[in-house]
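Batch manifest, entry 17 of 40.
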Amino acid sequence: MLPPPEPAVTRTPDALVLGAGPNGLVAAVNLARAGLSVLVLEAEPTPGGAVRTRETTLPGFHHDLGAAFFPFGQVSPAFVPLDLPGAGLVWRHSPIDSAHPAPDGTCASISRDAALTAASLGPDAAPWQRIATWHARTRDRMLDALLSTLPALGPMLRFGPLNLLRLAQVALSSGRGFATRTFRTEAARRMLPGLALHTDVGPDDPCGAIVGFMLAVLASSAGFPVPEGGAGSITRALIHRLEEKGGTLRCNARVTEILVRQNRAVAVRLATGEEIPAGRAIIADLAAPTLFLDLLPEPHVPDRIRRAMRRFPHGFGTFKIDWALDAAVPWRHEDAARAAVIHAGDSLDDLSTFTRQVRSGALPDNPYLVIGQQSVPDPTRAPPGRHTLWAYSRVPSSLAGGWQASREAFADRIEQRIEQLAPGFRSHILARALWSPPDLQAINANLIGGDLGGGSADIRHQLFFRPVFPWFRHRTPVRGLYLGSSYAHPGAGVHGACGRNAALAALHDL
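Output type: structure tokens
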């Protein structure tokens, strides 16, 4: 009779990464490339966080659950060294990157093609071209400066003091102020403030111009590409890079506690009760309030941080719709028909009214919309001759009486808004799937209240104050524990920089 086999020896991973969103996966890849053994723990059944794709409406229609177009995808200093195209990722572009139609028939548009942009902007082509030309010369140095860990003195010096001054002049303006100084037509003036409402920054907010400015200039250079097959293709490419370096991903592994001994994070406890040790570091791709209030033992979190997390400033909620269509959207303006992304905002005043209504807790009468046409550049998203459509509006996170009672009516209001710009749109709808703020939080716990950005994008909550001063360099008060989510600088966007910077901090400390 053979003796029983000896129990397998499980090696303690050098590093645990909590969360398999893009930031968590980028952190894990950087740690694995540095020679550490890495285990990624993901609470959900599938990895990706807000970068996932699913058939939410009908079979054969592939919809992105969260992020759907990626201005940082091909240019982020966190992604470029990973060579995601070499891991199978294919990017697709539309001729127009960002179109801004209004019911009056005007439509200002931004494209990577300077001639197409000039034709769209007319009398405002010259000032825009000066901005785009400057950005083309400085883009990579700018992104390195803006996406690196603060204070990023080396990248800032490489960007140059004159370029920093020019960017600071934008950053000190409101969206309305910068737009009215720069452009003559209402169509052009609504572009940048409209882009800023990807976050919770309204046209009249002090120091709010920089958000829309950055998205606009990226549209002119990197564009708003989509991954072939869906946003989940980014996640698959990152997992490929992780696994080729020996890293491991484990799903359905919800962390409920971080264990601390002698003020060092040494292990995590799962919802099942299982404890998993971490040999050298833990990086959390998690919401900052969740990390500091729920997962860490109270004695290890200073009272000031706990107070700050209880009043953490979240951004607007989000209401999202996926549609399966039997044909392309019949836009009135041809630029919209060829655009990757359409931004529906009638004017600066319309965007200001929208912002006031959302902040007051009301559903907006005339919803501002971000609309993604992924199946235009990527036909694999839908069956032949069919199309997908994706759109969201910013909304209050909660409503009196709850969201369930308002979901269908608000979705109808959004469809009517699109109908104004594309008569006949509703006749092409085969099915739709609705996602209110509670629905979005249910599929990704980091999207608290439907906040897509990991906290408010207001300037008072950025830079050295994200998530809380002085813990803005990805370290936490607990040794060996790092915050690598969009709740840390540089914040929102699928750029992977938060995860990369947290990994670099951990490697520096090791």
